[in-house]
Amino acid sequence: MPGTLDAFLDGPGTSVRDALHIVPAGEKVRPDNLLPAPDVTESEAADQFQLASLDAVVRMKLVGFRDKDRTHLRDLLELGLIDESWCQRLPPALAERLRQLILNPE
């Protein structure tokens, strides 16, 4: 069901803020999201698990665009993992969000 989010909590009395959140592949986390979450095929193999590709993570962060998402995107920009050239790879609405963040990081 779109709009629901499952999470694993690390024991009783823990906060959802500190939980491991499960995002269903190919589904919108919230009905008003611009795009659904990436598919599992947009991942890379690690030693014992799969990791979402950088492209997929950037899109997820731009779709969510909450304060913590913008913080993560600023970190990626600062590390040089993403830059203005990424705007060409994104749908227009997401490219605009990235441009906005590049022009006004705070």
Q: Any overview of this molecule?
A:
- Helix 1 runs antiparallel to helix 2.
- This protein has one domain.
- The chain contains 3 helices and 4 strands; from the N terminus they run ββββααα.
- It is 33% helix and 11% strand.
- It is of the alpha+beta class and 106 residues long.
- It is globular and about 40 Å long.
- A two-stranded antiparallel ribbon has the order 1-2.
Quick rundown:
The chain contains three helices and four strands. It is an alpha+beta fold.
Outline, from the CA principal axes? globular
As for the number of domains, it is 1
Helix content: 25-40%
Low-confidence segments, given as residue ranges, are: none
Name the quaternary structure: single chain
The main sheet comes to: 2 strands, antiparallel
Mean pLDDT: 89
The ordered H/E elements are EEEEHHH
Question: Which keywords apply here?
Answer:
3 helices, two-stranded antiparallel sheet, globular, alpha+beta, 106 residues
Q: Secondary-structure blueprint of this entry?
A:
Blueprint: E1 6-8, E2 20-22, E3 43-45, E4 50-52, H1 54-64, H2 67-78, H3 92-103
Antiparallel strand pairs: 1-2, 3-4
Helix pairs in contact: 1-2
